[in-house]
Design brief:
Blueprint (H helix, E strand, L loop, with lengths): L1 E9 L6 H13 L12 H6 L8 E8 L5 H5 L4 H9 L9 E4 L5 E5 L2 E8 L3 H20 L7 H4 L10 H24 L1 H4 L5 E6 L6 H11 L4 H5 L1 E6 L11 H13 L10 H11 L5 E4 L2 H14 L3 E5 L2 E6 L2 E7 L6 H7 L9 E2 L2 E2 H10 L3 E8 L6 H17 L4 E8 L6 H21 L4 E4 L7 H8 L2 E4 L8 H9 L10 E4 L3 H8 L8 E3 L5 H13 L6 H10 L2 H14 L5
Parallel strand pairs: 1-2, 1-6, 2-5, 6-7, 7-8, 8-11, 14-15, 14-17, 15-16, 17-18, 18-19
Antiparallel strand pairs: 3-4, 4-5, 9-10, 10-11, 12-13
Length: 579
């Protein structure tokens, strides 16, 4: 069995004081503890198949997010976990944590069985590298892929702001992660046996420097050439990648501001220098995966703008020769847990969720009886999702429908996200204001907005009830909601299926490249032109567009997340070449 080390900012599970206290209370009262949720996040769902017994001995390394993580990792709750096993609550209804003699933390819960390792940061460090640099600077910048620049045109899109100290903390966190990976590999029994190769798979924009630091540490820590050859390092970028040509204005503006403020720093950082370091650092991976070919091209264009690299096409991949190494990149669009979603929207499965005291299913049913089209939106609260623009799209669509005596109601479900961040607080406040303003102009409650997400599996059943799904990001790495909606319509009658209104995203690129369009019930729109998008949506309804059998079959057969994970790991293992 080979070792796989998954590295991400957020791990799959964390421990809070309230969670563990409640578990101890259940043991005292002789009752079974409430089974905690596991695997609801998109990344955990993507990796779920790798966390079960199989061909990989998996370790997941992630930053600590719980106030009792450090106590669990040090074995302070070992007695609690043993009692849970004795009472037959664990591992079927409660996680079982076993600390081995090498201090590795073995996690078992239901069908999951893997090792887990926390990386600990103090609160200020976490806020600086995670909230301010990764989410405050990198996240919006990575989405600047096309004109117009969103931070200048969109109502709620913030200007990417760089603070030198935040980048220092980001770099420091990469060193901490890299040291943790080295330590875990030293403890690996598989590595000590000198057996199969090991894969280290880094995830997303939080960890763009890790591979560079990690490979340097392997040399510094005395790993032999043979040992280093057995360790393969890869990364997957779940975001888009910025377009170097589109951010030149931002780079020039940053330079002008530095001159204007008379910043004299011999070790200063600019937006350009920081992005150069991150872009170059990623080349230390053996393989880098992106969602789409367009994101690959953006990365290659940034490399060619800044560095002397040689780029060749090798089959379905690009090979980048730099110094004495070759890095391979390729496009692997992420998938989803198809079987789970399909089973949750099968016949007989109904929506059971309440908006306040009202049944959401009954409310939708009553609207449908009145001849209303059901518009829907289901997103986390993020300014990249085009939420405010979406309200305007619905407003114009409804006005066009009314011209032909049609009617509709829009249910927007917005899950809270990064609520401690001022940009997200401003977005939510603006969204609430725009909902009230739109309803006032429409003279009724035509838009119903809830700021609480609908948990699985009810979210899939909500999607099943929607006639017009608005997935209208300004830019999005993929947006799995688009694929989830397509699957949710599988068991509806072909003439009653809904249609998908889709903004700029990895999903729109993947579907359009496959030739799916309005004939298949997919309406591509530009959220920055809401009037055109709304009228286009109403016209597609007038023409009776519905999701086709072919697009449903495509998602069901070719957008499976287990296939995505296997393809990435195979590429990391097989792509290594010498210059």
């Amino acid at each position: 069995m080979s070792d796989l080390v998954i590295v991400s900012n957020r791990g799959p599970f964390s421990f809070s004081g309230s969670f563990l206290t409640q578990a101890e209370a259940c043991l005292k009262s002789g009752t079974r503890p409430h089974s905690p949720k596991f695997g609801e996040g998109g990344l955990v769902q993507a990796m779920a198949g790798l966390l079960k017994p199989g061909s990989w001995n998996t370790t997941w390394i992630g930053a600590s997010m719980g106030d009792r993580d450090i106590d669990v990792a040090r074995g302070h709750y070992t007695r609690l976990f043993k009692r849970m096993v004795k009472e037959k609550h664990a591992p079927d209804y409660f996680p079982h944590i076993e600390i081995g003699p090498d201090n590795r933390m073995h996690f078992r819960y239901k069908e999951y069985d893997f090792y887990m390792r926390f990386v600990f940061f103090d609160t200020k460090h976490m806020h600086s590298y995670y909230n301010r640099f990764a989410n405050g600077f990198l996240w919006p910048l990575m989405h600047l892929t096309r004109p117009p620049l969103f931070y200048k045109k969109a109502k709620t899109f913030p200007r990417p702001y760089l603070e030198k100290n935040d980048f220092v903390q980001y770099t420091s966190s990469g060193v901490t992660f890299a040291n943790t990976i080295v330590d875990e590999i030293r403890k690996s029994r598989e590595f000590q046996r000198k057996g199969d190769h090991i894969v280290v798979w880094n995830q997303d924009y939080h960890l763009m420097q890790i591979s560079e630091v990690y490979k340097a540490l392997l040399v510094e820590e005395g790993f032999s050439d043979e040992e280093r050859k057995r360790i393969h390092v890869g990364q997957f970028m779940h975001t888009p990648f910025f377009n170097i040509h589109e951010i030149q204005g931002l780079i020039r503006e940053d330079k002008r501001n530095r001159v204007k403020l008379q910043i004299h720093d011999p070790f200063g950082e600019s937006i350009e220098s920081v992005l150069q370091k991150l872009t170059w650092g990623m080349l230390s991976n053996d393989f880098i995966g992106f969602h789409t070919k367009e994101y690959c091209d953006h990365y290659l264009e940034a490399l060619e703008e800044w560095f002397p690299v040689d780029i060749r096409v090798g089959g379905e991949f690009y090979e980048i020769t730099h110094q004495d190494r070759v890095t391979t990149i390729g496009a692997f669009p992420i998938g989803l847990d198809v079987d789970q979603i399909v089973s949750e929207v099968s016949e007989g499965k109904t929506l059971e969720y309440k908006l306040g005291r009202e049944s959401l299913y009954q409310k939708i049913t009553n609207d449908r009886k009145r001849g209303r089209y059901i518009f829907g939106g289901l997103e986390r609260c993020d300014y990249t999702k085009g939420l405010v623009e979406r309200l305007s799209i619905f407003y114009h669509a409804l006005n066009r429908l009314r011209a032909s005596r049609g009617d509709a109601r829009f249910y927007q479900v917005t899950a809270p996200s990064r609520s401690e961040n001022p940009d997200y607080q401003n977005l939510y406040a603006a969204l609430e204001q725009e909902v009230a303003k739109a309803n006032s102009r429409l003279r009724g409650e035509y838009i119903i907005h809830t700021g609480e997400g609908i948990p699985a599996p009810q979210n899939y059943r909500f999607l099943k009830e929607v006639d017009v799904m608005l997935v209208t990001p300004l830019e999005d790495g993929m947006n799995l909601v688009a694929f989830e909606y397509i699957l949710s319509q599988k068991y509806r009658s072909p003439t009653e299926r809904g249609m998908l209104v889709l903004g700029t995203s990895g999903a729109s690129r993947v579907l359009s490249e496959r030739g799916f369009g309005e004939k298949d019930g997919i309406i591509y729109v530009n959220p920055m032109k809401p009037k055109d998008a709304g009228e286009k949506t109403a016209e597609a309804l007038r023409r009776g567009r519905h999701l086709s059998e072919s697009v449903i079959n495509y998602v069901e057969k070719e957008r499976r997340v287990d296939d995505w994970a296997e393809k990435n790991i195979d590429a990391i293992l097989s792509c290594r070449k010498t210059a």
